[in-house]
Amino acid sequence: MTAEERLVQIRRMQAQGKSTRQIAAVIGISQPRVVQILGAARRGPSAVLLVRQARRETTTAAILAAARRGRLTHAEIAEDAGVSRSTVSRVLRAGREGR
After folding, report:
1. Tens digits of per-residue pLDDT, 75-91?
2. Are residues 41 and 8 in the same domain?
3. Is 66 in the same domain as 41?
4. What's one Pfam family the UniProt record gives for this protein (predicted)?
5. What is the DSSP string of 2-65?
6. Closest among 96, 25, 39, 89 to 63, alpha carbons compared
7. DSSP annotation of 84
8. Residue range 33-77, pLDDT digits in tens
9. What total number of domains does the chain contain?
10. How far apart are CA 65 and CA 70, in angstroms?
11. 58 vs 36, 37, 45, 53, 81, CA distance in Å?
């Protein structure tokens, strides 16, 4: 969902009288995130585009896919996935805990 689509969805629910907490629960994001998006919208339409996701949705999948491709170092996986080595370590450590 794009930033504009999310803003439209939030504004519709706001017009229905829902609180930011209720909106967050329906959309599946945090209440502070809803407030952040609304604040950016008040600053102008282009500000909404600058509101970034806290974490790329594909980061974990990209790291795990890179790790499964072969015997790569954390630095190589980080370069492939476009994240830091510490992020790679954290994701791989979490993945092992679930096994």
Report:
1. 888 877 777 888 888 88
2. yes
3. no
4. LacI
5. -HHHHHHHHHHHHHTT--HHHHHHHHTS-HHHHHHHHHHHHH-HHHHHH---SS-TTHHHHHHH
6. 89
7. -
8. 888 888 888 877 666 655 665 555 556 777 777 777 777 888 888
9. 2
10. 9
11. 22, 21, 26, 11, 9
